[in-house]
Structure formats: structure tokens, C-alpha cells
Fold these 2 entries.
Entry 1:
Amino acid sequence: MFVIITYDVSESRVNKVRKVLKKYLIWTQNSVFEGVITEAKLYKCLSEVNKIMDKREDSLYIYKVENPQNLSKDVLGICKNPEDMFL
Amino acid sequence: MFVIITYDVSESRVNKVRKVLKKYLIWTQNSVFEGVITEAKLYKCLSEVNKIMDKREDSLYIYKVENPQNLSKDVLGICKNPEDMFL
């Protein structure tokens, strides 16, 4: 399964959330992770994130595509690699 | 077709980019728009965005799923509606 995870998380927690997501997926844009992952690993990932997030303030969207062939991706502008930036 | 658009755009241009995207799609998270759109309208939308972006600094990802039934979405935390916020 291919997933895209986007998030709006308070500054005080965002680095911790990124560190968890980075263990399972690829960081492709400031607020976006993506990658191929099993349902079991995604569940584990989200359980970890769940412990860090404040669910009254933070927001995390998980878009799942069962068959990655049903998904295509285009890029306008630069193809960022935030992994070079920090963490 | 269902599209998810995520962006990293400089503060000086981000409101203009959002105003264009808002004409075609639904703003669901700070840096995310999504919705059902035709290929022709998406092309028109991206042409408009293209004129605003600085392609050496800004980044816009377009994830396309031909059949929305191949996509599912889960939310952790709050389901934001940035349309209430500003613009």
C-alpha cells in the first residue's frame, strides 16, 4: 500500500512527530511524508504518532492507495528533500 | 479524477497560490488542497499557479488518483477547515 501523510502539528511537537514518521516513510516536503508501507507497520507508526499529538490541536491526514499503480505524482517547482535540512 | 495538492511556497507568494487553488479544490489542511477535478480544469489551475510560483524556491506536489474508489483517507486529531481561517 502507498500512503501520503500530511500534518499540521504545533511547533512544540512537530519534530517528535517527524522523527516517528521518518522511521517508516520518506519525507518529501515540509509537511508531507510518503511511501510504501504494510498495514501492520502503518498501524504501528500511527500508534506512536498518536502518543505525541495533541488531538485537540494537531491534525494528521493519512491518504491510502492500495495499488500504487492507481496513483501518479507530478511536481511543479523544486523537488525538495527535507531530509537534507535537519533532524 | 481525485487530486491531492501539497505545497511549500514562500510566505510572500503563498496567499496568491492558495487563492488560485481555492477556485478549483477544497482546502483541507494548512498546506493541502484536495478534490475531484477534470484533467482540463487541473491543467488550467496549474497554469495559473505556475505564473505565481518561483520554481527555484517553491514546490507543489500533485498526487492524482484516476478512480477515487482506490483512495481512502483517515484523520488523526482534528479535521481542520482552513476555509474558516482566512482568505
Entry 2:
Amino acid sequence: MFVQDSSTTIAELKTLVGAFVAERKWEPFHDPKNLSASIAIEAAELMEHFQWLRSEELAAVLHDAKAMSEIRDEVADIAAYLLSFATRMGIDLASALDEKMKKNAVKYPTEKFSGRFR
Amino acid sequence: MFVQDSSTTIAELKTLVGAFVAERKWEPFHDPKNLSASIAIEAAELMEHFQWLRSEELAAVLHDAKAMSEIRDEVADIAAYLLSFATRMGIDLASALDEKMKKNAVKYPTEKFSGRFR
Amino acid sequence: MFVQDSSTTIAELKTLVGAFVAERKWEPFHDPKNLSASIAIEAAELMEHFQWLRSEELAAVLHDAKAMSEIRDEVADIAAYLLSFATRMGIDLASALDEKMKKNAVKYPTEKFSGRFR
Amino acid sequence: MFVQDSSTTIAELKTLVGAFVAERKWEPFHDPKNLSASIAIEAAELMEHFQWLRSEELAAVLHDAKAMSEIRDEVADIAAYLLSFATRMGIDLASALDEKMKKNAVKYPTEKFSGRFR
């Protein structure tokens, strides 16, 4: 199986992560409290890459191969815990996102929030 | 389009989120530093639902419809920012996850880590 | 007692927070895992105030009375949980900080790190 | 100066941290956005020590000298950034905490919240 954004479904990624966890019998550790903390921990590790950078220095990170490789791994870690959390809680991630974006569209009407976040 | 884990690809979700951001001209706010902080902020909101619960109290959350609805929205928020981050940084999320799980399989061999996290 | 930075000791603040927790019999909730998550949750709420601001927009926050009042409360929340955590773990916060700054002074020698974080 | 909770004031700790930052000319990095993210990053590192532990396993950490030493350092890191943030924003930390605890006392009356967090 060639795994890539253009063809891989959320369900397939859930299966990928779920199999890894099951093979190690890690389900008892993967309760929702621990998984939510794990997402936050990995998110903090992602933030570290930008901790002291000013807004105008951020574009340079795209050209830093070492940083980009580490950032890619952090993104994957967040995704793994998020998928594991969704599986554990019986949440369909794609439909949850679709519905939340519809709520957000009501909360942030285009005309009022164009180029503004408040 | 019926959006659901079993049929929706990562690329489709990236498009969904990307269109929302573009319609509001929010790209200038969505730099990698701000998005990584946003993932952490939403992850903290998810953690709040379990903040004071003991391990044995977690299962009851599954039967709390109000909590589950809020948790579903938090999960969607994390996903939205994670997808936006990946798009912004040119990261293929599915292949990043697939490769990270292969690294993790080397780091955590099944026989040594069965039922153990260290 | 007039509580202010120039005359109030860490021990006095620990007592202030400890009394509040004890009066509500909240010690069972205040285990180190929950308190560490609580610090992270409050830190995320503090981050929210700067979530979409560019570096050059930060100075204006100092003149926003409503934001400053909320920020002051978030800072207090982080301090409360940090003090509660230190009390719970038997950590002398002042000496821990003093010793860590001495370690940092070795790790970040002045001549090498002047105006640089790496 | 012997630094300890029983005799050291918040102002003295602010001076300790402020001198460290000034000697390295790090003030430009220590803007409120970066410092709030830094508090969150260090809080996540503190959480990591309890990431996979169940409630009943937490007491054992107190007897793990290596873990306790690392935890002490993380607590110091959070304190350092929190003090630096308060200094930067002109916030008197002790009075902010005192006032917040008074607000909390109104929000969480003893009779209603005894042994309950909601």
C-alpha cells in the first residue's frame, strides 16, 4: 500500500495506528486522558521549533532540511495520538471536522471576518 | 460529498480546511508558529474534559452526550489546525505518519515493549 | 497581610494556595499528573491572548486594559497550580529555580550566547 | 544569599531571572508571545513524567530520585518563564495570585464545592 494524502483515507490511518498499538498491547495506556495529554505534549514539541523565531523568520524553516524532518515527525506524532483518541472515543474524524467547519462558517461569516480574526 | 473516515482522504480534508481559510483570507495569520500554538491550545481544551478525572472514571465520559459533543468539536479543531499546518509546510501527512510508525516499530520492538511503555 | 512581590515569600504563597485547596478538600484531585496538566491548560489559555498576533503587534497588548486583566488572571492560575504542584511534590521552588539558573549559566555561557539562543 | 521558599520573595526571584536574561541580551526573544509558549512547552515536559501513569501509580514518583530531579528542573523552568513573563508585562505576581484566589473563593464557595470540582 502506498500511503499518501491524495489516496489514503482516515479509516486506513486509524487502522495503521491501531495495529501498532494493539501489537504492543498498549490499549490500557491509551485512555482518553493520557491520549489528550499526549497530543498536547507532541504539540509542544512542534511549537519548540518556532519558540524564539519572529514572524518574519518563519519562512526560512522551510529550507532547513533538519528542522523540516523533525517537524514532519512531530506532525506525525500528533496525528497518531489524534487518530488513536478518535478511535478510542468512537469519533468519526472526517465527519466531525466537516460538521465543525460548518459551525465555524456560521460563527465566522466571510464578509465580517475577511482578513480579520475577531 | 458525504464526508466520513471510511472514504474521505487526507487530501480532501486538507482542501476542506484550506478553502475555509482562503475564503476568509486568513493565510497571513496561519503561519507555522501560530498554527503550532493553535494545535497546543486546542489540545489543552481537549485535556480540560479529563482534567480532574481519575483513570477509572474515564469510561463514563463515553456516555455523557454533552461532553462527547464538545470533545468531538475539540478533536475537529485539532485536526483542522494540524491539516492547515501540514498544508502550509508542504507535508504529506499520510506518508509522514506511515514513515514515523515504521521508525517507532524499530524504536519499540514488539517483544520488548509488549504491555510496557519503557 | 499586604501581598506583593517585594515582600511576599514563596512559602507565603504556597500557604495561600494550600489553604484554598484544603478548605475545599480538593487534595485528592490535586495529584501531580492532574496539576501538571492544569499548568499546561492555563498556559494554553495565556497563549490564546497572543495566538494570532505578529511580533510587532505585541506591545499594544500592554495598553489593552481588558486583555491585561485577563492575562493577569491567567498568570495567577499558572502560579497557583505551580505552587500546588511544588507543595505536593515537596519541592522548594526558590532553591530549585536558583539551582536551575546556575545549571543554565553553565549551559549558556554569556560570551557564546549573547543575543543568540543557539 | 540563601535562596529558599521560606525567606525568598517573588521580587528576588524576578531579579534572579531578569539578571540571567539581561546578561545574555535575551530580552528581544522574551516577548510575551514567546514566553507564554515557553511556559506551555515546559509544562508539557513536566506532563511527560506522568504521561502513561495511572492515578494509583503516581505516589511512586516521589521515591524515584532521577525522576524527581528532572521534575524539579522542569518546575524551575516553568517558574523562570512565568517570572520573566510577569516582569515583562509589569504584573505583580503575588498580588495577582492573591486577588485571583479571592475571585476563586467567590466562584467556588466552600459549602458547595467541598470534595467536588463542579
